[in-house]
Task: inverse folding
């Protein structure tokens, strides 16, 4: 597509999106006319690629899908930040879908540029053994990044992966080379979901082959363990439960990443981005080096009584899932406050992302280093995969109990099976990953809908259909985001490839 092929030569486009607060993109651009003629050139391009990722794993990229589901309520008189997604009024002209679509393709374009450069340098025969290994590492990292961003695109714009139907469902355009052209007959189209995932798996296989960096807690760059973590997540999404269990178990059994059980340390770990269980953390160095925030308009927790101004608050059913006295997550994720801005009353706020003090001066900007993978997710993947394999309820239950034993003081292991086990795993996933952008795609994978709850106090909430009152059935077509109208109009290959809910 012409728009994709035009944009992907830059690290990211600098644009502003008033309605969705995508905040900012880096203005640094890669010169596509420059060649990568040395290891140093490759390293520079690779570092630029990583710099862009701090935007792609934060902000609206994360919380819009949670707003769309059943985790948050908009308060009355809220400013409509994220409102089209919360209220199911998204159109094909929506700024957020536009920004995320073209933003991710810009990063993919730069991954493609690095892949081509490293391949050319490796084929030149000019590198010694040490330099060859280094450039291969960079090649593997670029393959990984392309895979991860393609996967993220499917999570926004595609249906759940069903092995029986993936060959007939729309995926996203798979662009593996930078090749701008004026010939519209050569513009890429969406292809099938099966083809998209084939490329994702292929790229991860390449990454697994060439990335030699060992895993480490809070790794700043892609390691072998990061590759394994994405393989587990992708396999679960593909309903390939055997692979998902194998990959998740590999990371759990490594012992590198320790589940935390101390309430104070866990809460501080979220503030300072220093959890002992983080497999990959996108590095940021200070107030002049941070990506998108997690949305001040959602959290906006000043720490001063009466001055908090949240536009969204947690749904009461989520709060009720926790053992509020003994679960270390409850104190780290939530706090009861008096508010008096958009409404007056006592309310439990979501405070998981108050802002890392090293990334701001004086006043919080709500920025944090994205913790893309944590070992707790691997326990949840292992539990869900084992349950779905069949005949492994005991295995699934063990992973569930092992996670809970670290999170809940005084927890005693429980024995679940069948539907009860499935529901406990799903509830635990909600509790553990709350506010990390997983909920909508979990609903898609489970093929279930939702009804928003009554709320902590109905008088605090924005009332009306698709606001406080909202029911969406399983496989709702609006769970998929629209392909940007600009893309559809610019590319004749995609004329009939818009998602069903947004067709004119």
Result:
């Amino acid at each position: 597509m012409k728009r994709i092929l035009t944009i992907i030569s830059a690290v990211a486009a600098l644009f502003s999106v008033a309605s969705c607060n995508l905040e900012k993109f880096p203005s640094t651009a890669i010169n596509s006319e420059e060649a990568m003629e040395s290891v140093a050139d490759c390293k520079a391009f690779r570092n630029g690629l990583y710099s862009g990722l701090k935007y792609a794993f934060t902000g609206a990229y994360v919380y819009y899908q949670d707003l769309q589901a059943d985790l948050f309520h908009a308060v009355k008189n809220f400013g409509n930040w994220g409102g089209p997604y919360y209220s199911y009024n998204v159109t094909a002209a929506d700024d957020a879908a536009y920004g995320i679509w073209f933003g991710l393709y810009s990063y993919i374009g730069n991954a493609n540029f690095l892949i081509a450069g490293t391949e050319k340098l490796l084929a030149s025969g000019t590198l010694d053994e040490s330099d060859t290994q280094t450039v291969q590492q960079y090649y593997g990292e670029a393959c990984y990044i392309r895979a991860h961003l393609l996967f993220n695109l499917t999570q926004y714009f595609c249906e759940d992966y069903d092995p029986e139907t993936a060959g007939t469902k729309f995926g996203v355009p798979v662009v593996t080379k930078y090749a701008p052209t004026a010939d519209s007959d050569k513009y890429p189209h969406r292809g099938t979901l099966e083809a998209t995932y084939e490329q994702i798996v292929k790229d991860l296989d390449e990454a697994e082959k060439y990335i030699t960096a060992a895993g480490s807690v809070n790794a700043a760059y892609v390691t072998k363990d990061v590759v394994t973590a994405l393989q587990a997540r992708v396999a679960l999404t593909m309903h390939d439960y055997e692979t998902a269990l194998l990959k998740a178990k590999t990371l759990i059994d490594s012992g590198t990443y320790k589940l935390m059980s101390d309430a104070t340390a866990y809460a501080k770990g979220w503030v300072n981005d220093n959890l002992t269980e983080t497999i990959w953390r996108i590095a940021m160095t200070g107030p002049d080096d941070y990506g998108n925030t997690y949305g001040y308009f959602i959290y906006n927790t000043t720490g001063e009584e009466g001055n908090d101004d949240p536009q969204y608050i947690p749904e009461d059913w989520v709060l009720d899932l926790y053992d509020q006295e003994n679960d270390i997550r409850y104190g780290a994720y939530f706090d009861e406050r008096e508010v008096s801005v958009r409404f007056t009353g006592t309310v439990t706020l979501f405070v998981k992302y108050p802002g890392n003090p090293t990334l701001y001066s004086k006043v919080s900007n709500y920025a944090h280093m994205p913790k893309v993978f944590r070992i707790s997710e691997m326990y949840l993947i292992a539990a869900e995969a084992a349950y779905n394999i069949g005949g492994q309820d005991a295995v699934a239950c063990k992973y569930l109990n092992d996670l809970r034993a670290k999170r809940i003081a005084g927890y005693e292991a429980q024995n679940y099976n069948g539907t009860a086990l499935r529901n406990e795993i799903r509830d635990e996933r909600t509790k553990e990953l709350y506010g990390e952008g997983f909920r909508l795609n979990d609903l898609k994978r489970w093929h279930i809908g939702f009804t928003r709850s009554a709320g902590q106090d109905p008088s605090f909430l924005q009332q009306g259909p698709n606001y406080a009152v909202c029911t969406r059935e399983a496989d709702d077509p609006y769970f998929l985001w629209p392909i940007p109208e600009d893309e559809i109009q610019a590319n004749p290959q995609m004329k009939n490839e818009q998602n069903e809910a947004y067709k004119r």
